[in-house]
């Protein structure tokens, strides 16, 4: 296994904990739906999985594209809808 | 191929910046947009740099997914947000598991490491998928919100976990035997159900946060399978985020994660609350009398519970608060971490009713404020204001952080009936000398109060 990729993973966890701890409780729901949208990054894998000539794998790729797109589109849209509502006095 | 990784790093940087901007309501919307741009970059670079992609299929999938996602996002009501996040977690986990499965099915030679990670990704992703649908069903009311338990459930789950390890090991040894591979997926799916179904409705905030974390873990595992930095970094971010929120929710209820997952809390409580010696005598006031108390107050703290959202009374609250402010009184809102059905849910419900976010204070901020507060108005909240949590070691909520409303000069509590809260216990606060009950539906009561305040 490539050690670099493990390094990236572990550092990303630390960065994640650092920045997410600073999100105030008021914004925890948008944080959740927003990070949900980010986990739609699986779409990248889904796109790669549709490579021509994959047989069953290609079909799994198609379903994966659908699922991940729901995540990405729905997640970012609903987060925006919520954040729009947060107003100052 | 090297340049593609640069774009994935760029996308990851934009995700991090986006989450960073979520640290303040002023910049948050911008942050979401930045993360979205990051996602567009990641998708575009993938589409352009990998050859032999089936573009027709990708386009079909994206259009179907976009329509479903957008419909959800536009139609969902703010009270239903927990269900929606639950189901989205499920799709995220499902997508990761499918990608890992596709990779398993089409690649010829895979290393032991890659095979192990594929099994992990399928396990976590599938478990997230089915578990999220159970959580969705419970929140939406399709499935009983009560914990569903059967004899030997823990043993059953333990055996399933062992089976996954055993069969997973077999798949790694001889990947050509497809039956074992399908068995891993099937057992993971069953475990998602049996691990979620015994968890009570009140604990769903923890479960959703946890499933959120799992969906990140599944994405990161898939990243290891594909050796893709973008997936690994984003997966780690989401995994960390879900874990932090899970921890906050557990602290808010003073419960350990193991207790939430295996405790089946919310099932029949021993009938301690029926002790006649503990019968609570309450004072019941009309809204007119309550209005006079408000008239004499300088500082008012409103404590909204989920009952308020159920009664759709957020707008009525805002009207009362605005009237009180126009009468020269200071009005704040006290938000308990588990006031809603998911982390930060109550804040969104109040923001929807145009209540300014500066007035929404969390537990640590607001508790010192009750000392010099004239009236605390408790609306549809119960367990989170129960002083028993501070001193009664026999109480199921003992040790849970609560809002110290009883320290206010007067506490006005609105409830429909004297029914107990989620924890199924009576609240001694209602019988305190400085407590006053105003019975009725939250919305009707607030509208009547508004009228009475104007008539003063």
TrEMBL record, chain A:
<dbReference type="GO" id="GO:0008750">
    <property type="term" value="F:proton-translocating NAD(P)+ transhydrogenase activity"/>
</dbReference>
<keyword id="KW-0472">Membrane</keyword>
<keyword id="KW-0521">NADP</keyword>
<dbReference type="GO" id="GO:0006740">
    <property type="term" value="P:NADPH regeneration"/>
</dbReference>
<dbReference type="GO" id="GO:0050661">
    <property type="term" value="F:NADP binding"/>
</dbReference>
<dbReference type="Pfam" id="PF12769">
    <property type="entry name" value="PNTB_4TM"/>
</dbReference>
<dbReference type="GO" id="GO:0005886">
    <property type="term" value="C:plasma membrane"/>
</dbReference>
<keyword id="KW-0520">NAD</keyword>
<protein>
    <recommendedName>
        <fullName>proton-translocating NAD(P)(+) transhydrogenase</fullName>
        <ecNumber>7.1.1.1</ecNumber>
    </recommendedName>
</protein>
<keyword id="KW-0997">Cell inner membrane</keyword>
<feature type="transmembrane region" description="Helical">
    <location>
        <begin position="6"/>
        <end position="23"/>
    </location>
</feature>
<feature type="transmembrane region" description="Helical">
    <location>
        <begin position="59"/>
        <end position="79"/>
    </location>
</feature>
<keyword id="KW-1278">Translocase</keyword>
<keyword id="KW-1133">Transmembrane helix</keyword>
<dbReference type="InterPro" id="IPR024605">
    <property type="entry name" value="NADP_transhyd_a_C"/>
</dbReference>
<keyword id="KW-1003">Cell membrane</keyword>
<feature type="domain" description="NAD(P) transhydrogenase alpha subunit C-terminal">
    <location>
        <begin position="6"/>
        <end position="88"/>
    </location>
</feature>
<keyword id="KW-0812">Transmembrane</keyword>
């Amino acid at each position: 296994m490539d050690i670099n990729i493990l390094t990236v993973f572990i550092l990303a966890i630390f960065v994640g904990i650092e920045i997410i701890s600073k999100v105030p409780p008021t914004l925890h729901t948008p944080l959740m739906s927003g990070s949900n949208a980010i986990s739609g990054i699986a779409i990248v894998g889904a796109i790669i999985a549709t490579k021509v000539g994959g047989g069953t794998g290609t079909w799994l790729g198609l379903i994966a594209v659908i699922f991940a797109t729901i995540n990405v589109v729905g997640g970012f849209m609903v987060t925006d809808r919520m954040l729009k509502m947060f107003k100052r006095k | 191929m090297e340049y593609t990784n640069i774009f994935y790093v760029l996308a990851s940087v934009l995700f991090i910046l986006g989450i960073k901007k979520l640290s303040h309501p002023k910049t948050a919307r911008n942050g979401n947009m930045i993360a979205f741009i990051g996602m567009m970059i990641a998708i575009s670079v993938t589409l352009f740099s990998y050859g032999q992609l089936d573009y027709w299929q990708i386009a079909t999938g994206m259009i179907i997914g976009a329509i479903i996602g957008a419909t959800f996002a536009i139609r969902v009501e703010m009270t239903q947000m927990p269900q929606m996040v639950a189901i989205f977690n499920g799709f995220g986990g499902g997508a990761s598991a499918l990608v890992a499965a596709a990779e398993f099915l089409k690649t010829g030679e895979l290393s032991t490491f890659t095979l192990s990670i594929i099994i992990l990704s399928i396990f976590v992703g599938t478990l997230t998928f089915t578990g999220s649908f159970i959580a969705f069903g419970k929140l939406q009311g399709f499935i009983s919100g009560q914990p569903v338990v059967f004899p030997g459930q823990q043993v059953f789950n333990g055996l399933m976990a062992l089976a996954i390890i055993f069969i997973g090991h077999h798949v790694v040894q001889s990947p050509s035997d497809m039956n074992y591979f399908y068995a891993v997926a099937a057992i993971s799916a069953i475990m998602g159900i049996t691990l979620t179904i015994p968890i009570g409705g009140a604990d769903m905030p923890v479960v959703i946060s946890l499933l959120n974390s799992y969906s990140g873990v599944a994405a990161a595992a898939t990243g290891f399978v594909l050796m893709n930095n973008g997936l690994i970094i984003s997966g780690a971010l989401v995994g960390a985020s879900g874990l932090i929120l899970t921890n906050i929710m557990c602290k808010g209820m003073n419960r350990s994660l193991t207790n939430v997952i295996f405790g089946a809390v919310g099932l029949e409580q021993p009938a301690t609350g029926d002790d006649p010696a503990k019968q609570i005598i309450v004072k019941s006031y009309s809204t007119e009398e309550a209005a006079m108390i408000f008239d004499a107050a300088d500082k008012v703290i409103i404590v909204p519970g989920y009952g308020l959202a159920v009664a759709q009374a957020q707008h009525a609250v805002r009207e009362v608060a605005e009237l009180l402010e126009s009468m020269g009184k200071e009005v704040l809102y006290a938000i308990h971490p588990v006031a809603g059905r998911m982390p930060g849910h109550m804040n969104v419900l109040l923001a929807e009713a145009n209540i300014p976010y500066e007035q929404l204070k969390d537990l640590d901020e607001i508790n010192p404020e009750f000392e010099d507060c004239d009236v605390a108005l408790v609306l549809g909240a119960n367990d989170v204001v129960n002083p028993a949590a501070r001193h009664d070691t026999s109480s199921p909520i003992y040790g849970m952080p609560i809002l110290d409303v009883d320290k206010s000069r007067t506490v006005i509590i609105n409830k429909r009936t004297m029914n107990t809260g989620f924890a199924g216990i009576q609240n001694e606060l209602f019988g305190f000398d400085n407590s006053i009950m105003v019975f009725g539906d939250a919305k009707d009561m607030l509208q009547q109060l508004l009228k009475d305040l104007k008539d003063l």
